[in-house]
Amino acid sequence: MGFDSAIQRKIMGQFATGVTVVTTGGEAGVHGLTANAVASLSLNPPLVLVAVDKRAHSMSFLHANRCFAVNILRLDQEPVSNRFATPGPKDFDGLETKTDVTGSPILVGCVGYLDCRVVEILPGGDHEIFVGEIVGGELNGGEPLLYHAGSYRRLAP
Questions:
Q1: Which of 21, 44, 54, 155 has its CA 20 to 30 A from that of 65?
Q2: SS3 letters across 12-75
Q3: Rounded Cα–Cα distance for residues 107 and 4 (Å)
């Protein structure tokens, strides 16, 4: 018998994370999803990883477009996080976006972003791990939106 996934969820929920919206753009179209399973992987070469649930609607877009942007959300962008956390098609209406190298949508006003080309896709249980080589990015600053124990949080002063 394996480890209880409900207990795993509770334990890992104590690990405070930043909140991102991972976007992709290309021939398959644009799409995005809220993600906190994001990590810096390597500085040389510059790599990040994003773990995506195999059931996510974004999966086919990521596979076809072979690129993504990691948009690190600001504290006041909680509604953006909620918009991209729901299953199904995503709506970019009313959001100011731009593009960088890959054509993936960049959310204007986020704390910062990384624009990436997919260099490898690895199995990860019920997720797939997209390894992206960073080809563009920008640090804008601001207070980041955090997630801990099932709720959005902010940094203490």
A1: 44
A2: HCCCCEECEEEEECCCCCCEEEEECCEEEEEECCEEEEEEEECCCCHHHHHHHHCEEEEEECEH
A3: 37
Phi first, then psi: what are they for 6, rounded to 5°? -65, -40
Tokens describing residue 152: 């959005």
Q: What are phi and psi of 78, to 5 degrees?
A: -55, -40
Residues in CB range of 10: below 8 A, 6 or more apart: none
d(CA 33, CA 115): 15
CB within 8 Å of 14: residues ≥ 6 apart: 148, 149
Give the tens place of pLDDT for each residue, 63-81.
Answer: 999 999 999 999 999 999 9
The two tokens of residue 109 are 């006003």
Closest CA to 52 of 38, 41, 69: 38
Instruction: Using DSSP bridges, classify how beta strands 106-107 and 146-148 pair: parallel, antiparallel or unpaired.
Output: unpaired
Positions of the chain with pLDDT lower than 70, given as ranges = 1
Are residues 70 and 117 in contact, defined by beta-carbon separation less than 8 angstroms? no
pTM: 0.94
Residue type, 138: E
